[in-house]
Amino acid sequence: MVETTRAISQKTLLLDCWLHDKPIETKFMVKTTIEPEDEWLHSFYYFNDEIPKEEDFEKTISDYLTFEFNMIMQGREYLFHNQEQ
After folding, report:
1. Could you give the CA distance from residue 22 to residue 53 in angstroms, rounded to a whole number?
2. Are 71 and 79 in contact (CB under 8 A)?
3. Which tens digit of pLDDT belongs to each residue from 5-43?
4. For 21, left (φ over 0), alpha (ψ -120 to 50), or beta?
5. I need a labelling partner for 53 at 20 to 30 A (CA). Which of 13, 33, 62, 83 fits?
6. What secondary structure does DSSP assign to 14-46, as a single string?
7. Could you give the CA distance from residue 44 to residue 38 in angstroms, rounded to a whole number?
């Protein structure tokens, strides 16, 4: 872990919320009780409301095309065929 100034302040904030009930916006964390049978709901409490930048979109497309090219070069082009045809 890199101990940047931001990482240290986020850790301090998290511990203040967790240990001392400091009020916090739900964008940072959600405090709730989750029972063992509710574990599958963990992703319900996670959200990212940041609007992606154009560079993020371009990187995602580039990553996918690289993946697809690698699969085709390895003889796995069948992964990209529509099975309903």
Report:
1. 32
2. yes
3. 888 888 888 888 888 888 777 667 777 777 777 767 766
4. left
5. 13
6. HHHHHHH-----TTT-------GGGGGGGGGG-
7. 10
